[in-house]
Amino acid sequence: TDDNMNVTYISLKGHVEIEKYRYFYFFMMLPVYILIVCSNCTIISLIVIHKNLHEPMYIFIAGLLTNSVLFSTNIYPKLLADFLSNEQIISYQACLFQILVFYSFSCSEFLLLAAMSYDRYVSICKPLQYAIIMRKTVVFILLGLAWVVPVCHLVVPVVGNVKSELCSFTLNGIFCNNSINYLFCAGSKALLTFGLVTLFNIGILPILFIIFTYVKILTVVYKSCREVRRKAAQTCLPHLLVLINYSCLMIYDIIIIRLESNFSKTTRFIITLQMIMYNPLCNPIIYGLKMTEIYKHLKKLFYKVRDDC
């Protein structure tokens, strides 16, 4: 604790042999962050520029990719700075803010995927009503709710922990997450209960909704002609790949926190790096290659850049 400024600092002790490998870590992760920002922003720009991509499905994809950039920006700049620093520390208030942003965007991913699954459900199961149901206003309301609802849920436990007494100032991680609960002298039952309700509302419920909508889609598609099946596979498969990928990463996060003592420091470090790398990198690849219309514009862009060069 810095008594003069009344600031409490937490040490991040999840790094592995940082004194020896700091430059290796830095020059490995910096290109990853640049690639995440550039690849996601390229597809977002294509969706914004081209009018034939101004449809609900592509607007949701742009929202999802924006979410990936914001999620990464919450972690990477601080992580890269820590690799080059003599001490890996963060103020308690900044740590709580990082937790709020980290879990808000994590839950927003599930809510955005839920909105996308609803869009696919209406498109495939109620095609004649699609234009009426999925109006631009509805799309932007769903986008707004996907970002606002998680913040409203998570701000309560985060603010509730601001005045909590800390008995330890060492966090076994490379950025702030729910591992911070191990630092408190005493846990609040009220905050724990609210946390479980939050997990159900913005984590489990969207996943159940996604499963329900895709079961309905599969039921309709199974009874339809080959062309409908092809269209459904083409538009639904990328969403399912992203959902499976992200769900696995979130399970990793829960396992690391709940079974912390059962993992070596190196294993935790590697899994955590994978968690913050894979999804933001995979999203633009999956949507760029699997969504035909985006792929066409992407191909044109690369040909234009090649010709200019």
From TrEMBL:
Q: Which residues form the signal peptide?
A: none
GO CC entries: plasma membrane
Q: Which UniProt keywords apply?
A: Cell membrane, Disulfide bond, G-protein coupled receptor, Glycoprotein, Membrane, Olfaction, Receptor, Sensory transduction, Transducer, Transmembrane, Transmembrane helix
Give the transmembrane ranges: 23-49, 56-76, 96-116, 137-156, 191-215, 236-257, 269-289
Q: Identify its membrane topology class.
A: Multi-pass membrane protein
GO MF assignments: G protein-coupled receptor activity; odorant binding; olfactory receptor activity
Read off the InterPro entries from this record. GPCR1_Superfamily_Member (IPR052921), GPCR_Rhodpsn (IPR000276), GPCR_Rhodpsn_7TM (IPR017452), Olfact_rcpt (IPR000725)
Q: Where is the G-protein coupled receptors family 1 profile domain?
A: 39-287
**Which cellular compartments is it found in?**
Cell membrane
What is this protein identified as?
A: Olfactory receptor
PROSITE patterns found in the cross-reference section: G_PROTEIN_RECEP_F1_1 (PS00237), G_PROTEIN_RECEP_F1_2 (PS50262)
Instruction: Indicate the family of this protein.
Output: Belongs to the G-protein coupled receptor 1 family.
